[in-house]
Amino acid sequence: MSVDIDITGLPQERVTFGPSPLAELGAALHVLSESGHHPGLRGWAASTAAGLEPDLLSRMSEAEFLWRSTRSDILLPGRPAPSATLARELDMVDELDDETYVGAALEINAAGCELRGAGGRSPLVDDAARDAALERASARGPRQLDFAQRLLRDPAAARAWIRRLLEDCDEAFFAGVWQRVLPQLSADAAEKGELLRRRSLTDALKAVSPTVALEEDARGRRITVDKLSHARADAVQQGVAPGVTFVPSAFGWPHLIVRHAPGWRPVVGYPVASPEVRPGPGTSELVEKRLMALAHPVRIRLCWELARAPCTTSELAKGFGMTAPEVSRHLKALREAGMLTTRRHGRYVQHQLDVGVVARLGGDFLEAILR
How far is the C-alpha of 278 from the C-alpha of 176, rounded, in Å? Predict the structure, then answer.
């Protein structure tokens, strides 16, 4: 399985590398929401969160589905070359029309299923997309349901609220972080760009990650990103500046983010460092039980989804095209192996992968399901 970016006929100079303050802020916010995905950054996440004002933490929690389970398209650069300043990139986001913005902000994926309605329509104009977005937000809790309702009811006010939140995060902690990581990210992007110019796209992609490759056959030329999902993007689509943007991140590992939605320039966010996941102790019997629980392709896919965010049984059933009892049986096997955590939000019961437990099964498995 992979995400494929069609670059047939694309000039090489349209493949660009560059750091993005907006993308890095999104990555940092994700780490603060899901520090379990990032063992090497837990200390940073804990100390940063401890220094934030309660009101800012509360607002971050309210809007966290913009960056927690999947990275919203509005948090990735929209132009061929990322801007040098967060303010400029936020200005670019402000240029989006309401339908595009709201559709991207509320696209909370379940098993790769888009919630923008038939033909990629926005929840602002498509009832099915609206109902799906509100149901998904409701499962995240009342505050995020309220946020989604406000975004649908008054997009202009909600968009201003989100921009102010990102600006406050910048002032509270991110400006210092960006100043610290920018030299590393700039050097990495320059190195990849030099590989592209002096050697080949294949070499540049290999330097990004061993899971990114160039494929050429009778169907054309494409960049493939190995992920536990299927998707396709077009780097030469109508109405969008042609090309692919690669964005390095100091907060990325183990994630490899790919924006592939129609109408958006494809973006690949990749980590500049891969800290080791240190295995913990576990009995042979327990390891065997957990591996047996994973000896089914559906459960691997469930892990892929549950590693990103808590999901209800009905969400998973709808996303995977299965019945709720079928999903429940697979969840039971994972739960009995001690690999899931469960919590209740009102009438919703959410399940999530225990990343710490899975880490002890091996860094390769963990990286694959979080990539």
Answer: 29
